[in-house]
Sequence to fold (213 residues):
Amino acid sequence: MLIFVNAGGWMMLPILLCSVVATALIVERFWTLQTRRITPDNLVAQVWQWANAGVLDDKRIQALRDGSPLGRVLAAGLVNRAHDRIVMKDSIEEVGRHVIYELSRYLNTLGTIASIAPLLGLLGTVIGMIKVFAAITAQGVGDASVLAGGISEALITTAAGLSVAIPTLMFYRYFLGRVEGFVVSMEQEALKLVEVLHGEREQENARAASEEN
Fold:
């Protein structure tokens, strides 16, 4: 490995740095973007049980908010559960935008690395070819070792840049898809919560009206 790094010249350093940063971000995103951490199962059902039991207090809402991103979205609606459906949805959407931003953290960096890694490799190729032509100008084509060194540097940096960019781009697209899936799931759960709470309130109002009549 060190042989290839030395043969690739100084342009291998930023490419290796991109590789290290991309690997760290990929591991971090795999750890963070787990379904059980983002959208735990049966969370709306738990809230519904609390509401039915009359124990849906500020303490439980705070625990819900601290538990997961989906919990933050649901808690935003629960805080405004006494208001009408529109106010509740607006509060959910506002918090949801912040949650989506946090879920997308570091993805722009991954996309940037996927874009610049092949360009760094191309720059290394250009530098290697410049060395080749400089050697030809100074010594002619008689010394094959000088020419081979420049060509080798050009090819190694190109291969290194592509080796970093290709998997980084794959993981970047994969994580984007996961975030989009989480967004859809949280929207569905939040709408379910709104319908459950306001549907119950509407039924109670209807029952009260019928009893008065």
